[in-house]
Structure formats: structure tokens, C-alpha cells
Amino acid sequence: MELIGAKLKKIRLEKGLTLEEVHKKTKIHLNVLKAIEEGSVVDLNPVYLKGFMKIYSKFLGVDFKDEQARFKPINTPDNQAKPVSFIQSASAKMGSLGSPRKIQLSAVIIFAVIFLFVIFGLGKIIAFKRSRRLAQKNIKSYEATQVRASQKVESSKAQKARVLNVIPKPQIIQIGSGNNASGVRLTINAREDCWIKVKSDGKLLYHGILKKGRPDNWVAKEKINLTLGNAGAVDLNVNGQVITSLGRKGQVIKDIVITRGGLSVQR
Q: Which domains, and CATH codes, for the chain?
């Protein structure tokens, strides 16, 4: 072992190489290189020692097999192989990988990659929970809007139903007063201002607002067509017969036909 190590050291020096340069090229730890050259590697597993010797010899251009045949290690009790511990074996392996600085750099890079993966995973989880809360909020808002719209529709329907229950629909009224040979006579007395339209035998006689407290009269040979804009605000006198109300206040009634036989209201 001493002869082989000394031979390798001699070749290294002849080539003008330092142990640091050999370490950088072979990735063998400086302590291991020194121990090989000094022949003091007595606590390293023979398998690892043989591997380092091959790498070192190949780097220097020496055939390790030939050198092993020519230079046999001294077999002394102090130089016999001893069992190597797990820590020593791991240290040798780590030394063969590179310098402590490179190992630290590799560890930092691995830690940074793991940290980024963790941050990315947390970001995905937070984004998912946030989107789920937003979706639930939108669903609740939509449901509340639908409930309010439904309540509004129901309220409108109920209000319309109340109006229909309070205000009756116009009824068809047929009033007869016998056969009037003198024609058709109509008098309208307005309790409030009322828009009216009067036709006599197809001819337009009046189209406008009849003022409150100002009655007016119309006559026709065959019939009178009447339209009221406020049926609950007027009293009619048809051929001498009084009609106090044809409908509710503010109600528009069209197609009121007055003939010699009486009055009829149609819709």
C-alpha cells in the first residue's frame, strides 16, 4: 500500500499537479488522497479503498492492475484492514461526491424546491377554498333575489285580487221604457268632471269634458251611441228614466247604445 501510494504521489508531482487539482478532477476527498499517498488508510473498507485507487491511478495514467502486481502493500499488524464503521463509510462516500460547499449548495437547492412545491400547494388550496366560498355566496344571493322576486309577484297578484274584489266589473244593463214614438232622448248630469262622446244616428254631436253641475241634452231619431270616461261620476236620464250609475268611479265604458226601447251596455 505504501509503495503504491508513494508511486502515485511521485507521478502526481512529476505531472506538476496538486492534491486540490486532483480532488477537483476525481471528486475524491483531500483526506482520502493524502491517506492513499501516505499509506495510512487503515480504517477504510477495502472495497472503497480499491475503488478510490482505481480512480486515482486512471487519472494519473497508471494501470492499477500492473501497479498492484509490482507493488504489494506491506502486510504488517498495524497495516491490516480493520472493520469500518457506518459513519466512516458514509464520510468516505460524501467525500467522493465533492466538497462540503457543493454539498451544502445542493441541499439548499433541494430545500428551496421542496419549499416552492409546498407554497404552490398551499396557494392552490387557498384559491380553491376562496372560489368555493364565492360560489356559495353567489348562490345564496341568487336564491335571495329569486325569493324577493317571487314575493313581489305574489304581492302584486294579491293586490290585484283585492282590487278586483273591491271594484266590480261592468255589468250589461238593459233598461226598457216602452216604445217612444218621439225618438230617443238623453240627459247627462255630471257630479264630477267627465269626458264623454255622444253620437246621434251615427253623427258626432259632442266630444269633450262635461263640467261638474252642468247637465246637457241630446236627441236622436233611432239611437244614441255614448262613451263615458268616468262612469261613476254621471247620472243619466234615458227617455225619462233616471240611471244613477253605470259603473265605478274612473271607469271607462264604451259602446253604450240608447234606442227607443231603452239602454244597453256592452263590452
A: 2-98 (1.10.260.40), 174-265 (no CATH)
146 vs 163, more confident: 146
Instruction: Note the pLDDT of residue 163.
Output: 37
CB 176 within 8 Å of CB 264: no
More confidently predicted of 96 and 248: 248
Residue 43: closest CA among 106, 93, 92: 92
Question: How far is it, in rounded angstroms, from Cα 47 to Cα 157?
Answer: 97
The pLDDT of residue 206 is above 90: yes
Q: How many CB atoms lie within 10 A of CB 184?
A: 22
* Cell matching residue 20: 486540490
Tell me if the pTM is above 0.70.
no
- SS3 of residue 3 by DSSP: helix
Q: At what angle do helices 46-60 and 2-14 cross, to 10 degrees?
A: 30
Q: Distance between CA atoms of 125 and 134, rounded to whole angstroms?
A: 14
Q: Quote the distance between the C-alpha of residue 171 and its chain's center.
A: 58
- In which band, very low, low, confident or very high, does the pLDDT at 197 lie, cut at 50, 70 and 90? very high
On the CB side of 147, how many CA atoms lie within 13 Å of its CA?
Answer: 6
DSSP letters, 95-124, are: HHH--HHHHHHHHHHHHHHHHHHHHHHHHH
Nearest to 179 by CA among 66, 260, 72, 249: 260
Query: pLDDT, tens digit, for every residue of 6-36?
Result: 889 999 999 999 999 999 999 999 999 998 8
